[in-house]
Amino acid sequence: MNEGRTGIWFVGARGSVATTAAIGLAALVEGRIRPVGLTTAAPDFDDVALPAFADLVVGGHDVDETPLLERARRLAAGGMIAPATVEAVAARLDAIDGEIRLVPREARGSQRREIGLRADDIRSFRERHGLRRVVVIDVASTEPLPADRPEFHDRAALDAALDEAGRDLLPSSTLSALAALEAGSPYACFTPSISLGIPALQDAAAEAGVPIAGQDGKTGETLLRTVLAPMFASRGMRVLSWAGANLLGGGDGATLADPAAVQSKLASKNRGLHDLLGHDVVTPLHIDNVPDLGDVKTAWDHVHAEGFLDTRITLQTTWTAYDSTLAAPLVIDLARLLSLAEEAGLVGPVPELGYFFKDPWGSDVHAFARQADELVSWALRTAVRRNATQAA
Q1: Tens digits of per-residue pLDDT, 77-104?
Q2: What is the distance between the alpha carbons of residues 191 and 205, in angstroms, rounded to a whole number?
Q3: For a tag site, which of 3, 21, 120, 217 has the least CB within 10 Å?
Q4: What domain range includes position 82?
Q5: What is the pLDDT of residues 150-190, one digit of tens each?
Q6: Phi/psi of residue 282, nearest 5 degrees
Q7: Secondary structure element (H or E) that encloses residue 204, with its range
Q8: For residue 271, what pLDDT is reported?
Q9: Same domain, 382 and 246
Q10: Of 263 and 60, which is predicted with more confidence?
């Protein structure tokens, strides 16, 4: 295992995904659950030095002051997690709650100052617990895409704008990402929010000397699409249309009911499909907020393809799951793998971590089987590199 403890700093630390991850980590450490759904717990990773679950310490930022244990009990009441599991780890959840800070706000200050305050919270967390590193993972609510601005394309102009008092140029996801880089922390964006997707910031992670990964976690419908789409392409069956409908409630459903917020999610969900099948495929997709579903998400897909002798092929799929229990093990995986990447001295986007994302940074690979092979190969190579770095 990696020497020293690793922090996970969640942006959106009291949201459903981070709360579920916190419950899961606590239950894993106490031996109450098995590591089902964790990629890094598979035999392929037995020879890869990763932080032990007991060596992962959780903290984070949020705008919500609801205690973490109360959030966990709400998830249990909705049927997602056994109430007995939540109560068994209640003391650990209270301890994590003590490490969650409200997102710093400076109404009359500059955004540069706000970035610095967020970075200070991350550094303080690391020092307080004597952590070897802190991995920052954004699992906050999806933001509306910001309007394009000239400063987004010019680093000097962006830097100047960040120093202007009272000017809110960058969205919160970008401020959190820059705070991670300023704190020297590896960073992952598990949401479709803009984050570091601003042209003027494309080299920021390399400049900061940290590895990063993103974007928008691939958990359900899109995961299935990236398994099935290569099958059609490999067999020479021409897909004519691939329609999808998503029904969900909870916080995500409410957030994505906003037409401005949903646009980035729709774009990331369809981008991989177009890359795998071609941009002439018709891909209508919509997301509906159904509050009574709570944290259960149901996705329906209808695939219409052309086969030999102009015959028609139809495939229909239904995927139903608690989306947060799909996402939570993946963010734990990411924390462990980004820890490995930093130990090995990697900087900038890690393409092989695209396995976890709809819109992977540094990679144009979307086919899931290929991504899985590349991830395992990368982890084994990086473990060797890490050992060599440590020996030197």
Answers
A1: 999 999 999 999 999 999 999 999 999 9
A2: 18
A3: 3
A4: 6-217+325-391
A5: 999 999 999 999 999 888 899 999 999 999 999 999 999 99
A6: -80, 125
A7: helix 204-208
A8: 79
A9: no
A10: 60
The count of C-alpha atoms lying within 13 angstroms of the C-alpha of 203, restricted to the half-sphere facing its C-beta, is 5
**pLDDT bracket for residue 234 (50, 70, 90):** very high
**How many separate helices (H) and strands (E) can be counted in the chain?**
13, 11
Q: What pLDDT digit, counting tens, does each position of 316-365 carry?
A: 999 999 999 999 999 999 999 999 999 999 999 999 999 999 999 999 99
Q: Is 8 helix (H, G, I), strand (E, B) or coil?
A: strand
Give the count of domains, the chain. Answer: 2
The Cα 279–Cα 273 span in angstroms is 9
Q: How far is CA 174 from CA 140, 202, 335, in A?
A: 12, 12, 19
In DSSP terms, which residues pair with 80 in a beta bridge?
none
Hey, is 282 helix, strand or coil? strand
Among 276, 301, 321, give the residue marking a domain's end: 321
Cα–Cα dist 313/304, whole Å: 6
Residue 50 shares a structural domain with residue 69: yes
Question: Residue 1 falls within a domain, yes or no?
Answer: no
